[in-house]
Amino acid sequence: MKTSSTRRHFLATAGSTLILPHLSRGKTRLPASERLSVAAIGMGGQIQGHVRTLLDRGHHVAAFCDVDEKQIQSSQKNHKAAADKIKTYGDYRVLLEKEKSLDAVVIATPDHWHAPICRAAMAAGKHVYCEKPLTHTLGEARQLRELSRASKVVTQTGNQGSASPNIRRSMELIAAGLFGPITDVHVWHPGLSAPYGTDRPAQGDPVPAGLDWDFWLGPAPVRPYKKEIYHPARWRAWYDFGNGTLGDFCCHSFNLPVRALDLDYPDRISVTGKKMGKESFPIDCTTSYHFPAKGKRGPVMMHFHVGDGLPQNLVQDLAGTFGKLPRVGCILQGTKGQLSAGLWNSQCYVRLKDEAKFRGADNHEAAKAIPETIPRSKGHMDEWLDACRGQGKVFADFDFGGHLTEIGLAGIVALRLQREIPWDGPNMNVPGLPEADRYIRKEDRPKYL
What is the model's pTM? Predict the structure, then answer.
């Protein structure tokens, strides 16, 4: 699809007076003048749903890009009706150079590649949707936040719970004071097995045909390929490529409390756990963030539990309603009651003091009396696509997504140091502990940047 630079500029800058047809959740037939040309980068499992949404909404998927030919071939099979019109690339730089008509890119690579590809796409003037966490390091998150403020492109972080009507309902209930002042937030996720809580294997294996392993490593330090240890899908455990369970879910689970409680930066982070000093994320740990009082809000403690560690009174409260502790979740505890929001903050269960069980907000008398004040969403990707076409705004741009990422990755610093730390969020450092800097910023291999 050919797209003129004039039309790309119009799509990026058109004001709210632009009238566009409603995009339903089903398949949509758009006039050619209103279609976006989008490339998909990182063809693992996560991006497949995004490609389907783009096609269903009537947009043009111009290219698939991945350093693993098998990932591209699998994507072509998944979207075979459109595959013959989709170009393929193994190098994102070549893609951005050759596909001049692109309006936007969707990025779902391993975390260590997020920031470099986002930077390149933004420099090329493309709108960007990037999976969470936004970046691999704190320094990268701050950089992308600043770039997004100065850039004219539309950005969106892939924390899809942002589009749920329940996260927006939860924000309304908290703002109305239904739960009283919120003092504690607890997030939980079950413990994970190998390759978590371990160091890298001593030996490597032959690199599979079609995989450019050195390019897959990209900015990360070189290490041998090992079958079923890094790629596909297991890279997140390793600190060189991801940040384990906390990095995986912080942008989901912290989304509601950060928005609703106006949490900026913690001033102290403590950690407990097993096997914290390994090359991969611990099997069992708790990371606790202390947020000081701000304005009319008192201090808040936010805890991320992997494995055991959730307080037993909360386990009992949840089991009393759901029969057992849900496998994953997020609960906000106030002086007047509790809100169970789910790990993706896409649920809204209310339990006020002296009530035996949680109830959905739609079935709770006190909750039903609180009016809706926040606009609802047609869909997370849809908000971004509309914003790229000049209609409306996104709910989770890189500035906000980068802030969530900064909070989550500050906890990674404490985990890697294996100790409680003071945290200076605005300046991104651990006061009096310069050895923490290597976990805040990193030196990339420049070969593929």
Answer: 0.92
